[in-house]
């Protein structure tokens, strides 16, 4: 490269004329923010503050509650319900891994191989949303019913012996076992995994696959070294969109599980609506929120590096 | 050079395409084609977009499966080999650098895939060759177009391929940078001695860089030769128009005498050397006589007597003239051709040569070439204009 050795002709530094920012449009960003901000304040910030105050109150339904800064509620809640917390994280993590294993190949197929079937498959992925969450989960109750064809087939293939040995199922039942809850969670959150995965895979230039092949990478190496690393944004957002709601879910455990599969969501729900112990319920909600935040923070930190690849 | 030794000892590094063709449904992208690229040459596939040049290149790379025919690299038949098993590397049109890897890792990619552990020295040498040593730890998007282009070249060359395939590698660069990269690529090719197959639609690029050019049109090779040969002796109107500009005169063969063919056109006589006629000349038959604009001299009609004997001459009237600097370009309306283009060097400018002036166009008969009259005179000319637009 030729380097310029001569001093460039010195030019009198011209101070850039500073124009005063135009008045018009100055408030536009704030105006655009306003509706969303109001919504957030009314339906998110205020309830959060309200729940935070509830969590440190003491009293009873009859006498009313007072803020007494009783932080011991947190400790009591955690020491009593930690198994449900652990279970929530385990179930949500299992469902997330299953979603990733099921969703990645499908998203890959839609992005690179589906051709003219692409839109049809996308509609099939989203189609479950046309019916309610509750009805879909109830349908799984029928699918996994005792003595039904699915359970019968699994039993005949001796799959149930293996899952029972692992503690995922009990006897010849699938319903009311951890397996049923994890299956329900996986099914219900699968689209949330597939859609971000598809979006990030679809953005990958197919010529990068050709370039990798041209540079002596076998198809499997191309996937490991090029496709998967480039799809990481989709993997991260997909797993978050699956893990976060799954860890707070209670419907699947309620409908497909038993008292042995209760997740923290079930505890919160019953504390609020059945036992009416509002401080404990609020404290549990905050612990769950903090736990999720902690897990997600660590996860995002790691995923920014090559540790996860 | 070490690399040349390696390739020559491998036993002939020619690229041989035999009867290779590619069809997509009803559309034939490449008609059965035989082509040999000599080892160590800088070979250009030149043609307008959609002429099949990129498909041909991709069949050599293994990215496209030929419908019929075989690809040989030296003695090895690679037709059935997937791209990752071919000793061939490609510089892609938009570079296709891996966005998640830095420049160093992009360049090291091929070496690592072949299980080479100590890549440091080679990568650094290669980055030095393309003058990007400083940028090793940057990501591709932090580099300029020209730098990305050099990374793409380095990433391919580091593998010492038998053949380097370049798919319109300079298409995304601006004109000045493109000129600079043309020289740079030529320098690298001379330095490493690897066979380069270069696909381009830019005739100037092909002529300045390549030792040998294959002009492609509608899935066929129209003509193959050195740039000078293609320019001086085009065998079809497509080649004549696609490479530079040509003037054509529809003429009738009047008589033949020895090595000369005498043609009749617009009442005058023109002489064409038999060796330069690519179509058979039979008395009374038609032939297209062509001449390049820069071969023609322009003399004002008043001085017609000063023109030496033995030159082909045509009379006409200047309709347009534009001053370019090194030359002046005239368009002359003549009975044999309504827009005859003439480029005159600005040595001694005759002020009488202005639009409306009656002139005589004359040139050495040796500069006339003869083509088969049964083809479209404008073939190739329109495609060039489309490309510019």
For this entry, give a set of tags.
heterodimer; A: 309 residues; mainly alpha; MetI-like fold; two-stranded antiparallel sheet; 13 helices; 2 strands; globular; disordered N terminus; B: 389 residues; alpha+beta; Rossmann fold; OB fold (Dihydrolipoamide Acetyltransferase, E2P); six-stranded mixed β-sheet; five-stranded antiparallel β-sheet; 10 helices; 20 strands; elongated
Question: What does this protein structure show overall?
Answer:
The complex is a heterodimer of chains A (309) and B (389). The radius of gyration of chain A is 27 Å and the shape is globular. Chain A has a single domain (83-303), classed as MetI-like fold, CATH 1.10.3720.10. Helix content of chain A is 69%, strand content 3%. A two-stranded antiparallel ribbon of chain A has the order 1-2. Chain A has 309 residues and is mostly helical. Helix content of chain B is 25%, strand content 34%. The two termini of chain B are 43 Å apart. Chain B has two domains: 2-232, Rossmann fold, CATH 3.40.50.300; 237-388, Beta Barrel (OB fold (Dihydrolipoamide Acetyltransferase, E2P)). The longest helix of chain B is centred in the middle third of the chain and has 18 residues, at 175-192. Chain B has helices at residues 2-9, 53-61, 103-113, 120-129, 145-157, 175-192, 203-209, 227-232, 237-242, 381-388, and strands spanning 15-24, 27-37, 42-46, 68-73, 76-77, 88-91, 163-167, 195-200, 212-217, 220-225, 247-257, 260-265, 268-273, 286-291, 297-300, 312-323, 327-334, 337-345, 358-363, 369-371. In chain B, helix 3 (103-113) packs parallel to helix 5 (145-157). The chains are: A mainly alpha (309), B alpha+beta (389). Chains A and B meet through helix 8 and helix 9 of A and strand 6 and helix 3 of B.
């Amino acid at each position: 490269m030729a380097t310029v050795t001569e001093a460039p002709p010195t030019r009198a530094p011209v101070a850039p004329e500073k124009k005063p920012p135009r008045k018009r449009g100055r408030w536009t960003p704030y105006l655009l923010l306003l509706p969303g901000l109001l919504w957030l304040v009314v339906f998110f910030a205020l309830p959060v503050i309200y729940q935070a105050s509830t969590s440190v109150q003491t009293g009873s339904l009859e006498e009313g509650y007072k803020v007494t800064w009783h932080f011991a509620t947190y400790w009591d809640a955690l020491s009593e319900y930690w198994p449900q917390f652990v279970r929530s994280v385990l179930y949500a993590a299992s469902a997330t891994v299953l979603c990733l294993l099921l969703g990645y190949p499908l998203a890959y197929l839609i992005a690179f191989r589906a051709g003219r079937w692409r839109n049809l498959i996308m509609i099939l992925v989203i189609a479950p949303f046309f019916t309610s969450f509750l009805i879909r989960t109830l349908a799984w109750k029928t699918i996994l019913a005792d003595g039904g064809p699915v359970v019968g087939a699994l039993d005949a293939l001796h799959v149930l012996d293996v899952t029972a040995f692992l503690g995922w199922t009990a006897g010849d039942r699938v319903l009311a076992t951890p397996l049923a809850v994890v299956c329900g969670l996986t099914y219900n959150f699968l689209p949330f995994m597939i859609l971000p995965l598809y979006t990030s895979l679809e953005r990958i230039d197919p010529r990068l696959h050709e370039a990798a092949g041209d540079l002596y990478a076998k198809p499997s190496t191309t996937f490991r070294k090029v496709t998967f690393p480039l799809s990481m944004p989709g993997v991260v957002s997909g797993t978050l969109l699956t893990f976060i709601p799954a860890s707070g879910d209670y419907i699947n455990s309620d409908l497909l599980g038993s008292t042995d599969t209760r997740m923290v969501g079930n505890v919160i729900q019953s504390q609020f609506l059945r036992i009416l112990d509002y401080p404990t319920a609020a404290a549990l909600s905050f612990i769950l929120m903090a736990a999720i935040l902690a897990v997600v923070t660590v996860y995002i930190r790691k995923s920014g590096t090559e540790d996860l690849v | 050079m070490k690399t040349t030794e390696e390739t020559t000892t491998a036993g002939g590094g020619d690229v041989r395409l035999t009867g290779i063709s590619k069809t997509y449904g009803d559309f034939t992208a490449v008609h059965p084609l035989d082509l040999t690229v000599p080892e160590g040459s800088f070979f250009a596939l030149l043609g307008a977009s959609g002429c099949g040049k990129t498909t041909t290149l991709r069949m050599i790379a293994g990215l496209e499966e030929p419908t019929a025919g075989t690809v040989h690299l030296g003695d090895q038949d690679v037709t059935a080999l997937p791209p990752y098993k071919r000793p061939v590397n490609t510089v892609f049109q938009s570079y296709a650098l891996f966005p998640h890897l830095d420049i160093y890792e992009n360049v090291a990619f091929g070496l690592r895939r072949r299980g080479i552990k100590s890549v440091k020295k080679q990568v650094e040498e290669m980055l030095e060759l393309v003058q990007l040593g400083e940028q090793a730890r940057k990501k591709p998007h932090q580099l300029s177009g020209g730098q990305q282009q050099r990374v793409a070249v380095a990433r391919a060359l580091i593998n010492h391929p038998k053949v380097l395939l370049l798919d319109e590698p300079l298409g995304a660069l601006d004109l000045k940078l493109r000129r600079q990269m043309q020289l740079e690529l030529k320098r690298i090719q001379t330095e490493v001695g690897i066979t380069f197959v270069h696909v381009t639609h830019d005739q100037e690029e092909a002529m300045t860089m390549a030792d040998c050019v294959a002009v492609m049109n509608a899935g066929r090779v129209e003509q193959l030769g050195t740039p000078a040969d293609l320019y001086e002796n085009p065998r079809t109107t497509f080649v004549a128009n696609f490479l530079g500009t040509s003037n054509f005169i529809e003429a009738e063969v009047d008589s033949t005498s020895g090595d000369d063919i005498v043609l009749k056109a617009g009442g005058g006589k023109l002489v064409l050397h038999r060796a330069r006629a690519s179509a058979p000349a039979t008395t009374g038959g038609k032939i297209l006589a062509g001449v390049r604009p820069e071969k023609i001299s322009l003399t004002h009609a008043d001085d017609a007597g000063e023109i030496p004997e033995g030159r082909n001459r045509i009379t006409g009237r200047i309709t347009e003239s534009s001053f370019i600097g090194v030359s002046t370009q005239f368009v002359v309306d003549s009975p044999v051709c309504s827009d005859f283009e003439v480029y005159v060097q600005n040595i001694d400018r005759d002020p009488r040569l202005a639009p409306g002036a009656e002139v005589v166009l004359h040139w050495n008969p040796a500069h006339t070439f003869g083509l088969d009259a049964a083809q479209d005179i404008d073939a190739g000319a329109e495609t060039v204009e489309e490309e510019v637009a």
